[in-house]
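Lecture 7 notes: from sequence to structure.
We start with the chain below.
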Amino acid sequence: MRLLDLFRRIRGSDRYAECVLVFVATTGAVIVCEATGRADAVIPSLLGVIACALAETEDHWRNRIVSLLVTLACFAVATAAVQWLMPWPWLFALGLPLATFGLVMLGAASARYGTIAGGTLILSVYTMIGVDAAGGTPAGFWHEPALLLAGAAWYGVLSLLWSAISPQRAVRHALARVFDELGAYLDCKAALFEPVRGIDREGRELALAMQNERVVEAMNATRLVLIDRIGGRRPRGATARRLRLYFMVQDIHERVSSAHYPYQALTDALFHHDTMFRCQRLLGLEAGLCRQRADGLRLRTAMTDDPAPMAALDDLAESIDYLRRLANPPAPHLLRSLEALLDNVGTIQAQLDGSAPLMTTSSDSALQNPGPRSPLDAWKRIRIQLTPRSFRFRHALRLALALLAGYGVLRAIHPNHGYWILLTTLFVCQPSYGATRRRLLQRVAGTVTGLVAGWLVLQALPVTEWQLPLIVLTGVLFFATWLRRYTLATASITLFVVLCFNQVGNGYDVMWPRLLDTFIGAAIAALAIRFILPDWQGRRLDGMLAETLRSHAGYLRQILVQYDSGKRDDLDYRIARRDAHNADASLSGLLANMLGEPGRRRRGTDTALRFLAISHSLLGHLSTLGTHRQRLVSDERRALLESAGKTLAADLDALAMAVEAGQPAPVANETPLIDELAAASDRADDATGRLVASQLGLLARQRDRLVEMLPVTEHREGD
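Predicted structure tokens for the same chain:
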């Protein structure tokens, strides 16, 4: 039974399909080569399989046909160009950086083109390695390209068949990843409700903001997969059900992101009561429900009935009711915040346990397609990025010059068997300094480990036929680990290379060149990221801070529209909400990359981290407004709150302009506005009016916190 459960877990892994396809493709290629006595075809055909697998995109089978044809066309041009130019070093040195720059810039059109372009670059270097391994004199011009393309086409056909057999698998796994990340986000959120003095609350708030980045990335990936499945058609069947589930995830994320009242203030006010502990426990149980949902999607199993979350919700309701009946109850605004919180977590639980129905798709259920609409649109996207201020342009130029330098070094040191330098540089040189440093260490450690393992295997299994199963298994292990455990993936592919070359020669002869070339290629990548247009994150910080503030202002304006007309999850609202969370996630990622840079290159790290924490708190109050949105009944109150909201949105825009221009932050006297909102909250006779006034007041306070941490200048009357 345990073995059956283990198999189901393995089958439910998001890497299962890729591993099965690589296993079948590499096994088939090895069998054909051995059966026909063409041991010399093993290396290029297997390299073609790997390159095509690396260039694979998560497309529906109909779109995958087009992607596969484009991939094979790019591969054919690349292999032919490499084959033609390799005997002419000067022409090769000219074409290598130009092709690299063009392929990296192609990624500006869309992520799909970027993936195909990356695979084409990898295959180009594989062609160099294959031609070099064949002694530079293959039997005919198309010998090496044909074998590489045959391996790529073989894998592509298998992948296409798998996609046609299981078209919804990618959607299920994408949604499962979102629920896993939501579960982790709920755990981070629960930690903020712990009523213990002396805890690092700022650290927990930063951890929450960093986890939100991962949630947003997972949601964006799911949206792209759904867009590919839906296309221009009306969603139906399984796709329609999972689209509704995606909209439910969006609503849950907005509710989980909400912050009804500052956590520190709640902890201080309710320190001697059990309410905060009960909130913490309930959120932890709801995190477990998220993981159950994720497992159900992966393993295609039903949710199990668990009475604990419902009991925890009832206990929280009783605790809040007990606070209300105390002789000296907490302040009314605290009780109102707790009641709104109870309503919010209750709705989340109903959605997670399946008792709340999924929303029906309608004309407002369209998803914004981020892909180019035409070749002209794709070219416009690329042209916009053709500036030194673009991080993609800088990375493209940096990688092109790094590969050119690597080619110069290999020609000077050892023209034969030196193309591993280019492959190492290609894999190690990442867009950011921190990512390049991590990849460099992982690449070197993995290569050393793989070479040691290769020496041991050659000693233990000297017969080449016995090594064939290991070639297949190491190729599969590479794809099982390369996204999450790159060191192990590098070790696997290094062992794969040693065994492949041992089929046509002596595997021992590859080891020292592979190790030396890895060190040289890694050193070139390190020098390139350090000295060729270094993209220090501090240079982008002001622009990212400003973009975050603008996106929050846009989100607030869309929320205000809904309080005037009534709740409606239309496309404009969902775009504004997504833009706000994307900006918050981008800021989180930028700061994470900045922390990996040299100390003297970090600019205002402490201030930026505090800004991120405050910005995420501000986003929490915006999410609270979005969670409870409905049309306000009183025209007078609606006008007051609309005016206050527009003032706050304008303040955020003004602050964004000041930050972007490097000017002192403008300060308006917000005390009267905060007092007016507090009074409106106290005298409102409906729960929605009180909540909106309270949250706008909290937004104003967060806005003031942002101003306080930045240089300020006072606005005079009439300015």
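Points to note: The CA atoms of residues 21 and 159 lie 7 Å apart. DSSP finds 27 helices and two strands in the chain.
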